[in-house]
Amino acid sequence: MEQPITENALPTQSRNGGTFSFLVLLAAAFVLLVVGLSVRGLWHSEGRWAEISRTMLNTGDYFHPRLGVEPYFDKPLLSYWIVCLSAVVTKALGLADGLNEFSVRLPSALAGIVAIASVVSLGRGLWSASAGRVAGWILLTTYGFLFWSRTATSEAQNMAVVVLALAWYWSRRERAGFGSFLAFYVIIFLGAMMKGLPAVILPVLAVFVDVVLNRRWASVLKISNFLALVAGLAIYFAPFLIASATATGDYSANGLALVVQENFKRYVDPFDHTGPVYLYLYYLPLLLLPWTPLFVAAIVHALARWREVDRNGRWLLISIAMMFVFFTVPGSRRGYYILPLVPLCSLFTAGFLVQVRTESAATARLHGFRTFWWFLAITGLFEMLAPVVVPLAREVIGSDVARVVLTAMPHELLTAMGIIGAASLILSAAMMITNWRLRGVLAWSRPAFAIATAVVVMGGFFGWQNGLLEPFRTEKAFVQQVAARTAEFAPEEFAFYHRGSANVYFYLNTPNSGQLLREPDEVREFFANPKRRVLFSERRYIPDIERYLTSSGSGSAFRLGPPDVVEALLPWEKTPDKQDWVAWFLKESSKGESPQAAKD
Question: Which domain holds residue 34?
Answer without folding.
Answer: 19-351
